[in-house]
Specification:
three-stranded antiparallel beta sheet, four-stranded mixed beta sheet, globular, alpha+beta, 288 residues
Amino acid sequence: MSWIAGGDFLMGSDRFYREERPVHRESLGGFWIDRYLVTNRAFARFVDATGYVTLAERQPDPALYPEADPSLLVPGSSVFLKPPGPVPLGDYRMWWAYVPSANWRHPEGPDADISDRMDHPVVHVGYDDARAYAAWAGKTLPTEAEWEFAARGGLDGAPYAWGDEPMPDGRIMANTWQGRFPWENLAEDGFERTSPVAAFPANGYGLFDMIGNVWEWTDSPVTSHAAVKHACCSAGEVDPRTTRRIVKGGSHLCAPNYCLRYRPAARQAEPIDTSTGHIGFRCILRAT
C-alpha cells in the first residue's frame, strides 16, 4: 500500500460530462491505499481461506427479478462481446450479454479460465463481494473522494492522471480502447481485455491502474455530489429502485468515440446487484 497524506483538492470536472460537475473543493485525512488492483491471485487466497461465493456464482432469486427471462435466472454475469461490425451506439445490448457461468474464475464464460491471468485484476465481483474481501483483509473500500484524490497523483485539476494530454508524446498511459468502439479494437496498448496490474506507468503517488484496465468500486452512494445517469459503458439499464454505488477510473472498454471516462473525475452509477467483466476494486486503510 502507499500512504496518501490527505489535504484539499479540486474534485470533479466542468470540461467533460454533466455528472462530473461542478468542480468543488474537498478536504481529506490521510489513508493507505493499495498500489495495485486486487488480482485474481489475491482474490483466490480470500476464497480459499473463507469459502466465499460471489454474486455471479449464486442462484438469482426470481422474486427479485419478476420480469426477467427465466432462462437467465441462473448464476452468471455480464460479458462484453465484440460485434463483427458497426452497431448503433445507443443500445448496449449490441455488445453486452448475460453469460451463464461467467464469474471471476471464468471471465468470458465456462470455457474460459484465469490460469494465465493471475496477475490481472479480479472481475465479475459485485459491490458486496468487494466489501467482503476488504473486510477479510482488514481494510475497506475508498469513498469516491478518496479514490479521486489518490488517482490524481498530486496533479490537482489536470484532466488525466498523468497530466493534460491523453497520450503525452504519443505514449499510451493506460489500458483503454484504441479504435472505433465497440467493433474495432486495434489493441495498440497490447491488450484486448484486462492487463496485468503493473503493465502501465504508476501515477505520482506510485499507484498503478487508477485509470483504465477496470472500473473500481467505491463505497460512495450515487447522491455523493451530483446526479449520475445511466453511463456509457454500463452493462445494463440502471433501475431507480436499485441501490447503486459510484465506480471510478474507466476501463479497457473506454474509447474516445464513445466513452471518454478514463480520467480521475469520471464517475458511473453501478447497481450493487450486478457484476461485469470490466469492474474490479482496490482497498484502503484509513489513519486512526
